[in-house]
LacI family DNA-binding transcriptional regulator
Amino acid sequence: MASKITLEEVARLAGVSTSTVSRHLNGTHFVADEKAAAIEQSIQRLNYRPNLVARGLARGRTLTVGVLTQEIVSSFFNEAMRGVEDGLIGHEYDAIFASTHWERDDEAKRLASMEGRRVDGLILIHPGIDDATLDRHAQTVPMVVVGRQVNSRFVHSLAFDHGLGAQLAMEHLLELGHRRIAYIGGPTGRADADQRFTTYRHALQSAGIAFDPRLVAPGNYVEAGGLSAMTLLLDRGLPFSAVFCANDDSAYGAMLALHRRQLRVPDDVSVVGFDDVAHSAYCVPPLTSVKQPLRELGREAANAVVALIDGRKPPRGPMARLELVVRESTRALPMQSAKATSAATRQKATSRRST
Amino acid sequence: MASKITLEEVARLAGVSTSTVSRHLNGTHFVADEKAAAIEQSIQRLNYRPNLVARGLARGRTLTVGVLTQEIVSSFFNEAMRGVEDGLIGHEYDAIFASTHWERDDEAKRLASMEGRRVDGLILIHPGIDDATLDRHAQTVPMVVVGRQVNSRFVHSLAFDHGLGAQLAMEHLLELGHRRIAYIGGPTGRADADQRFTTYRHALQSAGIAFDPRLVAPGNYVEAGGLSAMTLLLDRGLPFSAVFCANDDSAYGAMLALHRRQLRVPDDVSVVGFDDVAHSAYCVPPLTSVKQPLRELGREAANAVVALIDGRKPPRGPMARLELVVRESTRALPMQSAKATSAATRQKATSRRST
DNA sequence: CTGTTAGCGCTTTCAG
DNA sequence: CTGAAAGCGCTAACAG
């Protein structure tokens, strides 16, 4: 284990003081060309790498921003994380990630750990921690929260209007002539999920369609949940020609359930998702979905923390908007079946796409 | 910005010396119950959090292991990362992640950064850096490499036998009666991809089937590549009843291409992937794939670095094996079409699943 | 058991 | 422009 070499050794070899080396390294002051060269040389020869830990202690800042996400195995969070990475390029900060697996305790622990590491700023993606706690922490370290509106003047929150997104999805379905539209929900109690559901009901109402609770099934944002939700819906035997899923992963599960019952998308039922995760452009059929520009969101978050750290006010630019990406999982309801045939009763029927 | 409080303040409030507080915190020595209580109390009152940076500098170890991955937006890498997280639970180490986006330069930079942060150990997932460089770094910091066999006695490598996996996939297809088996490759020059391809050829040979280069198309491990590869294959107009894809993402793309040409999986062509990424159980149809137990691999990697750090020899247990997970994207070739009908010429034909 | 005293490696006044 | 010296916050001998 080759011993780590230090600034002091470099200084000695170059015949200067440690402060000079430090200054040269950080460009804080001009250093005589001659000495600079000598320093450069000994750095090479010794293969010196500054100890960031010591530097962090001395400077009082670590040049790191901590990113807390719920789950690493998730295209959704990944996109945002990637955005953060992108956004940090060009700034002098590095990101370190940690995930909390939806456990509130874990979140608290990770948060503490990040603070212990003295990150200069924090980005929390869809945190579950309550506003008050967040507010408290934000008083100690610059914090931006992504995916949720936090009621605190210390934390900078970046969130989309999920209602608007759901609106887009519903309008699309309605315009295609669908009247019996089922809904597969997200985890209850989460603002974004609630918002989507509320909009689903409102949209129905605005279109003069009675809300039917039997057309909604609970989901949990993951494939398995979508699968069982759709199975439940189908088992109830009520007719519906389209389904709006609270997120893409649920939609995948729903599509598989449909497939298992020999029902075809979009011929038998149209499905629209939410998130427009990378995979959605490649599933069969490609999924119509509400795109959340997560990458961009991540980038904005990165810029915001850096601004916060620098004591600037984060630019409150016009945020990227949610938009509907129409693909092949939705189609207009054919006139003859506008009377809403029952998907359930058509199981195993032969209504195939006319070739 | 509430000022960060220090050990010293805690000590003062508790009326003891800093070392006593430190000892109590780390459990290095017994501390009188009375004082311990006082310390505990002032910690509470001041809401003290140890400064891990200072601690790291003083101890000479940071209790962190760095994890370098190629891409954060990838179910493949995610699984392994998650495994590392899991494997670290119970140990006193935290993981910090960084991704390098397949850029060799980025890799070097990140590696340097991790070393600068004085991580106690390093896990590199599918690094592109050459063996010699890896070997050099490994002499300074405990290192385990996942996904590749590194020729160095300093680095501990953990890799699967991709040849075996490919073997499994091919045997499955062959047993199902397929003779004309196409292949969609991975990025050239990468050991794992090369290994899979080689095995594809060998398996064909062993089965007495002539290798036909026109049945292989280049891919790049991502959906788009799989899509164009399959399109190319179809355009060549040669008959094939099955396709082996170098990884799952390619398979998704291939399945979409098939869908676009009105070809059905597995009725018209069977497809098998490699990796068995989480989503594969939920695509339509669920994909038959060679499972790489990445999660477990990540866990093992975590245990290995910890062992290495502690100066122990990492346990070389029997590693989890690759296995074939048979789902619904493959099926036996019906006898009558055993003479290998041309998928291409059947495009838009009506051969649908008999209902 | 506990206080005192040195550092860990680097930055940053403070004087030249 | 540059050296000396004083920390950053915590741990780890070293003496009680």
About this structure: The two ends of chain B are 69 Å apart (CA to CA). Chain B has two domains: 64-159+294-321, 162-287+327-351. Chain B touches chain A through 57 residues (CB under 8 Å). The CA atoms of residues 11 and 68 of chain B lie 39 Å apart.
